Amino acid sequence: MKSLIDNARSFAATHVADPGRAESFRALEAGQSPETLFITCSDSRVVPALFTGASPGELFELRTAGNIVPEYRSDSPSGETATIEYAVRVLGVRDIVVCGHSHCGAVTAVVRGDDLSAVPAVQGWLERSVPADAPARAVASFTDDMAEAVQRHAVAQLETLRSYPCIQERLDQGALGLHAWYYEVHTGAVEVHRPESGPVSFGPL
């Protein structure tokens, strides 16, 4: 914690008060207008602003275990569905990115059928949010990074997003883009889903 505390103490003086940055930080007081909702994993190795170069106010972020998008249920709202709905209906984001990553513990657990009885909340989240036949459809070799399985999983989240009323409405208007990305934590490389090349085809940005 010490380094985090030290940086937090000096942040205002060394960054916000810097003449080159002060004006951009002051502008944040008026509100936010991000163009992109970035949905990714809670994994500490994944830092969206780092590999996208986004400045404060540019990304509206949603981080969940396994970058999972839960099904939309207005009768049982969750923080995740509320965040997505707010981003689309209130902030008016123009793009949504679902970004999976290499060495993802959640996807690995699902594909390999790991015993998650010691973490029942995690087990329930994955069982509720990941299709029961996901391991069979993943058809991925059990490599350390689980790249193919993670990519398929990210694309599957786009399908869940399409079931959200607010998203379907914006898609029908041609006012929203949905994208699946794959981030390799040990190289920093980013790939994007290219549906025109196949259902689960990824290539360089």
Automatic annotation (TrEMBL):
<dbReference type="Pfam" id="PF00484">
    <property type="entry name" value="Pro_CA"/>
</dbReference>
<keyword id="KW-0456">Lyase</keyword>
<comment type="similarity">
    <text>Belongs to the beta-class carbonic anhydrase family.</text>
</comment>
<dbReference type="InterPro" id="IPR015892">
    <property type="entry name" value="Carbonic_anhydrase_CS"/>
</dbReference>
<dbReference type="InterPro" id="IPR036874">
    <property type="entry name" value="Carbonic_anhydrase_sf"/>
</dbReference>
<comment type="function">
    <text>Catalyzes the reversible hydration of carbon dioxide to form bicarbonate.</text>
</comment>
<comment type="function">
    <text>Reversible hydration of carbon dioxide.</text>
</comment>
<dbReference type="InterPro" id="IPR001765">
    <property type="entry name" value="Carbonic_anhydrase"/>
</dbReference>
<protein>
    <recommendedName>
        <fullName>Carbonic anhydrase</fullName>
        <ecNumber>4.2.1.1</ecNumber>
    </recommendedName>
</protein>
<keyword id="KW-0479">Metal-binding</keyword>
<keyword id="KW-0862">Zinc</keyword>
